[in-house]
Specification:
This protein is of the alpha+beta class. It is built from 4 helices and 17 strands. It has a 17-stranded mixed β-sheet that branches.
């Protein structure tokens, strides 16, 4: 039997980054992207052989909100919520004239609200956090993605990849693993962090759900009483704010830049 002819097509993509967390963005409102082709997605995210990115995000139609966010890690697998990716997708939606300066969209963890300020900063509402596991060595919580948070004084020289992988693949979190954040306090409301991301399987320059997790974790363990917290990540600065009542964290917002890098076409 003869093999069927493989038809190639050109597809337009956009590249965005939020504090160094970079993403391949594709407008998939016509539902033409081969979403189940994990090898293709991993190839597009490969910095040497593809476009390069920490993940790939599809913008799709949704009947109840302005659009749908479908997020893939750079390994090609669909994943949980990505905060910086969500902020970049909001900026992308504005560039496509789908929205003006505010929107709602649906992601894997539910509905999100977001606004874009005149200076281009995107503020994205994250999910409420009602459970924070606190131990003597670490904090664990889910901010749309699971996050392990622990203090590391010598953060600048800390081996993020090896230590992060040991926790991510260790017995603590089973086969699904967790993202891992290492944190150093700078002042009463400022923290520096470095993040090992599952799916990327390495340190990334920034992680939005990780920054959100660190802000909440540091408040939960009493390292800060602030409810508006500044986070220094490898790729820039983020801000996380929230309301706290009886150890429940609501009205959680992640704020930072989301910048267009370039656009192009690729054959798939």
């Amino acid at each position: 039997m003869r093999n069927p002819i493989q038809v190639k097509m050109q597809i337009e993509f956009y590249k965005y980054q939020g504090t160094g967390n970079d993403f391949v963005m594709i407008d998939n409102r016509l539902d033409i992207f081969p979403k189940e082709n994990t090898k293709l997605i991993a190839h597009l995210c490969d910095i040497r052989f593809g476009i390069g990115g920490d993940g790939l995000i599809l913008l799709e139609n949704d009947s109840d909100t302005d659009f749908r966010m479908v997020y893939y890690n750079s390994d090609g697998n669909q994943s949980s919520m990505c905060g910086n990716g969500g902020r970049c997708l909001v900026a992308f939606a504005k560039k496509l004239n789908i929205i003006n300066n505010s929107c709602t969209f649906i992601a894997t963890d539910g509905v999100h609200h977001a606004t874009i300020a005149s200076d281009g900063l995107v503020s994205l509402q994250m999910i409420d956090v009602t459970q924070v596991k606190i131990t003597s060595e670490y904090v664990f919580l889910n901010t749309g993605s699971p996050h392990h948070v622990q203090l590391a004084e010598d953060l600048e020289h800390y081996n993020i990849k090896d230590n992060g992988a040991a926790i991510r693949y260790g017995a603590l979190y089973g086969k699904d693993g967790s993202n891992v954040n290492f944190v150093k306090q700078i002042d009463g409301s400022t923290f520096s962090l470095r993040t090992y991301e599952r799916g990327v399987e390495d340190e990334t320059l920034s992680c939005g759900t990780g920054a959100t997790a660190v802000a909440i974790a540091m408040n939960a363990i009493g390292k800060t009483n602030a409810t508006s917290i500044h986070l220094n990540v490898q790729g820039g600065k983020l801000e996380v704010s929230f309301d706290k009542k009886d150890n429940q964290f609501t009205n959680v917002f992640l704020k930072g830049p989301a910048e267009f890098v370039f656009k192009g076409e690729v054959e798939i």
